[in-house]
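Re: the request from the purification team.
They wanted to know what the chain is likely to look like in 3D before they choose a buffer screen. I agreed to run a prediction and write the result into the notebook, where they can find it.
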Amino acid sequence: MNEFLLIFRRDAGFDAQLTPAQMQEVTKPWQDWMGGLAAQNKLANSGARLAVDGKVVKSDGVITNGPYVEVKEALGGFIIIRAASLEEAAELSKGCPILSTGGNVEVRQIVPMQ
């Protein structure tokens, strides 16, 4: 079984637009989806949500506010799942709640360090 990183992208500032009640409403489908992955023994790491603010460290040592303030899309979080193939991992990603709010899921196989 291989491991895959699912990276969740959404409109920048999406969370800031939600009331506490709306945030709770959005959280339930995530819990259900991830619970389903766990029940199938497909959830390798429950991941985390990412804060909106961040920094970017560049190769010349310059540190800027980031990640990319000019871009409308932002990383919202990630999880690690188990799947037999990239195709299976992509199929599992189709149930991700971020898709219902206009976001997307990037699926990448994790290649162990040798």
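For the purification team: Residues 2-109 form a domain with the Alpha-Beta Plaits fold (CATH 3.30.70.1060).
Please add any questions underneath this entry.
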